[in-house]
What we know:
The chain is mostly helical. The protein is built from six helices and no strands. α2 (9-24) packs parallel to α4 and α5 (94-104) runs antiparallel to α6 (110-137). The chain is globular.
Amino acid sequence: MGIVMALDAFSGELLLAIILGVSITSKFDVWAFRISGLIALLVPGIYTLIQSDGLESHLRWLPIAILTTAGVLDEFLDGLSDRKYFQIFKYRPILEITMLLTVFMKLFPLTYSFALLSFDLGYLTVAKISLRIKEMTNISVVEKV
């Protein structure tokens, strides 16, 4: 992930926003996630230092701020998803909708919106399959999706 962030500014902005959103809401609850998040931030930083004469960055802070806010909102609304009228938020749609809006604002190419949506659909599919396996085998694979 850090290499992708270093080599592609659009990916870097999106992944940085996701890492910041998860960090702000304290959802990095497993040490492996904390370490991988730190590495994902260090690799592009080190790459930037090696490739240039200083901390010159090609990241745009407006898209990062917009997507970070969407990520924080997603995490907050996910906490309300157990209520009757908020169940849609367990799928965390705010970031995907916001990403699509940034495409219309000409901040990102459309392919990045498709990539994010594909990743999230894959994530949800794996979670559903894991839940089904848990139900069939009575083994604790996933706690909650």
